[in-house]
Design brief:
The complex is a heterodimer of chains A (194) and B (141). Chain A is α/β, with parallel strands linked by helices and 194 residues long. Chain A has seven helices and seven strands, in the order H-H-H-E-E-H-E-E-H-E-H-H-E-E. In chain A, strand 4, helix 5 and strand 5 form a beta-alpha-beta unit. Classes of the chains: A alpha/beta (194), B mainly alpha (141).
């Protein structure tokens, strides 16, 4: 898994080049980061520019190459931002150690999204908030079918377009408090609490 | 208060611009997919081969077009609806051919425009309905 993401790091910024449309939505979501923040799967750090200033953020990724590329962006952040290499499926943090956990297009790519969300639930303090910018399968049958077909190709690169991330977050124990549509019911800004 | 109004104005402008871009893009993909299928029908191959080749070329064209506009319109935002339109619009050409109606060049462009605008209206309507359902589910936000 680590090797796949080390290789993908080389093309990551090109693949994630949807920032013109999604950037303001991400900034609006991440504005709600409070206290000690865990940001999962920082990649090459393309989302760092949307972090609000003066926060204490620990950003993790499984890939050493991604984190190496994220380092320059980390330096540009006006606050406390640390990069840590760890797996979202077995986080190296104690229980209830964060006030906010945030993700951005992460749950499409982790091998076991429910396990990853349970890990996030574990490290979040009771009453802490979950902020997710995620894409998932549409409930519309035609658009859902298109996403299923796309997954046949994208799965080879480690990305699944048709996951039920909202359902998984609820199953993991989060209470969803607000959802904002970024693109139909496919890309959503999700607020939840533990 | 003024900055909130400015922000809302900016959001509305962005929304209109992206909507315009989405519409143009869907129109382009739909027209390209129909013209591709129309041209392959002109080769006079048997129906199954024509359908397979036409669909394959239409889907490859759609993928390349979607990848090229992804930095502006977004990857999923451009890929998902255009994939639907690039599957459905060439099938319409095949259906018309089966019923004995052969499209003219202007007919191809007209049908392409109709499919593109139709898909755009569908996603806009679906988006509005979904946002309304979110407002009902999370009132006061």
């Amino acid at each position: 898994m680590t090797t796949i993401w080390d290789l993908r790091a080389k093309l990551y910024d090109v693949c994630e080049a949807s920032d013109l449309r999604r950037g303001p939505h991400k900034a609006a979501l991440f504005r709600d980061m409070v206290g000690r923040v865990l940001f999962v799967a920082v990649g090459t750090g393309v989302d760092i520019r949307h972090f609000p200033p003066d926060r204490e953020i620990i950003a993790i990724d499984i890939s050493e190459e991604m984190l190496r590329r994220a380092e320059a962006r980390r330096k540009s952040y006006r606050g406390v931002l640390s990069l840590v290499q760890t797996d979202a499926l077995s986080l190296c943090f104690p229980d209830a150690s964060f006030d906010t956990v945030a993700t951005s297009c992460t749950m499409c790519s982790v091998p076991d999204p429910l396990r990853a969300l349970r890990e996030l639930h574990r490290v979040l303090r009771p009453g802490g908030q979950l902020l997710m910018f995620e894409h998932m399968r549409s409930r519309n049958p035609i658009l859902g079918l298109a996403l299923d077909l796309m997954t046949l190709v994208t799965r080879r690169g480690g990305t699944e377009m048709n996951r039920d991330t909202l359902g998984n977050a609820r199953t993991a124990g989060f209470r969803i408090t607000r959802i904002e549509s970024v693109f139909l019911d496919i890309i959503l800004s999700i607020h939840g609490v533990k | 208060m003024k900055s909130i109004r400015d922000n809302q104005g900016q959001q509305r402008l962005r929304s209109i611009m992206f909507g315009f871009g989405d519409c143009l893009f869907l129109l382009l993909v739909s027209t390209v997919a129909i013209v591709v299928m129309h041209l392959i029908h002109q080769l006079g191959w048997n129906f199954a081969l024509t359908w397979l080749a036409g669909m394959a070329v239409a889907m490859v064209s759609q993928t390349l077009l979607a990848l090229s506009v992804a930095p502006i319109l977004g990857s999923i935002e451009s890929m998902t609806p255009s994939m639907v339109v690039a599957m459905m619009s060439p099938m319409m050409v095949c259906t018309l051919n089966l019923t004995g109606y052969h499209l003219s060049r202007s007919g191809c462009f007209g049908l392409g425009a109709a499919f593109g605008v139709g898909m755009f209206l569908f996603i806009e309507t679906y988006g509005c309905v979904y946002k309304r359902s979110l407002r009902r589910a999370f009132p006061g936000r």
